[in-house]
């Protein structure tokens, strides 16, 4: 409360608008994250990390398409021999990807 009054009185004395530069505060800008334009199964599993990228070849041969992977159930992943930890990661990030809350980043894949 006291801080806002101090800022308001300083602005009134200086006759400036509400800006960070007028208060002498630095502005921090970060480099925007780069995302894949076209996401396939290797980019998706590599972006998840946590060891899920070890199953890229198996999932590509059995499922073949990212859309099919996104609607896949846990029992089918279990039948493919994918461990529980990796199944949970795939299903969790698949749901986030469908809702538009997460996308794999370009720098996330380490070759």
Automatic annotation (TrEMBL):
Q: Which Pfam families match?
A: SAM_Ribosomal_mS41 (PF09597)
Superkingdom classification of source: Eukaryota
Native source species: Microthlaspi erraticum
Domain Small ribosomal subunit protein mS41 SAM intervals: 41-100
| The protein's name | Small ribosomal subunit protein mS41 SAM domain-containing protein
């Amino acid at each position: 409360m006291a801080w806002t009054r101090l800022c308001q009185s300083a602005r009134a004395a200086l006759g400036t608008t509400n800006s960070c530069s007028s208060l002498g505060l630095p502005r921090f800008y970060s480099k925007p994250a780069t995302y894949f334009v076209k996401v396939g199964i290797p980019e998706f599993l590599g972006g998840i990390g946590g060891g899920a990228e070890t199953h890229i070849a198996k999932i590509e041969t059995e499922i073949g398409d990212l859309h099919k992977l996104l609607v896949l159930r846990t029992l089918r992943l279990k039948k493919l021999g994918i461990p529980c930890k990796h199944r949970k990661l795939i299903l969790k990030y698949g749901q986030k990807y469908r809702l538009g809350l997460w996308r794999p980043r370009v720098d996330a894949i380490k070759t």
